[in-house]
Amino acid sequence: YRPTKENSSTQSLANTQQSTAVQLFVVCADQGQLEEQTDSLMHILKEIIGSLGKLRVLEKGIDSLHRCEARKYSFELATKSHKSLQVGSISVYNDYFSKRLMIKQQEKKSYRNLWILGGHIDITKLLAAQI
Predict the structure, then answer these.
(1) Residue 36: which of 115, 96, 101, 120 has the closest Cα?
(2) Measured over all CA atoms, what is the biggest interatomic distance in the chain, rounded to whole angstroms?
(3) Of the candidates 97, 91, 81, the residue with the CA atom closest to the CA atom of residue 129
(4) pLDDT tens digit string along 31-56?
(5) What are the DSSP calls for 2-60, one per residue?
(6) For 130, which DSSP code?
(7) What is the pTM for the complete model shown?
(8) Fewer CB atoms < 10 Å away: N or C end of the chain?
């Protein structure tokens, strides 16, 4: 954390300390369903965010993933100053949380792990990219 000076000329919606966001959370029964939901969510976000400007979707490399993430996609919008601003992301967690938190689905007499997908859309940064 590095606080900025109050009268600094670098303050903007793009670097606020707090923001308004839409959180995304999907729980799937198996890996096949997780892949379908990932594709569906990617399509929806591309449609929504892409309608606001030039969109770039990046698949993050393994060096930038958290331990719980199997894959991560970053959604960036081009700003008026021709810079890219990350306005959202999707993280594929597979069954990482299910195994550790014992989140299970009962199937007849056995239990199986659930597969989890999460993400967010930062509304404040979406506005910043439009201004």
Answers:
(1) 115
(2) 63
(3) 81
(4) 999 999 999 999 999 999 999 989 99
(5) -PPPTT-TT-SGGG-SS--EEEEEEEESSHHHHHHHHHHHHHHHHHHHHTTS-EEEEEP
(6) H
(7) 0.82
(8) N
Closest CA to 72 of 89, 84, 56: 89
Minimal CA–CA distance to 105: which of 28, 34, 31, 38?
28
Q: How far apart are alpha carbons 59 and 24 in whole angstroms?
A: 18
Asked if residues 121 and 45 have their Cβ atoms less than 8 Å apart, the reply is yes
In the chain, the amino acid numbered 23 is Q
- Token pair for 121: 């859309």
- Measured in residues, the chain has a length of 131
Q: Are 88 and 75 in contact (CB under 8 A)?
A: yes
CA 52 from centroid of its chain's CA atoms: 17
CB-based contact 76:102 (threshold 8 Å)? no
Tokens of 68: 């719980």
Token pair belonging to 27: 């729980």
Q: Answer whether 123's CB lies under 8 Å from 19's CB.
A: yes
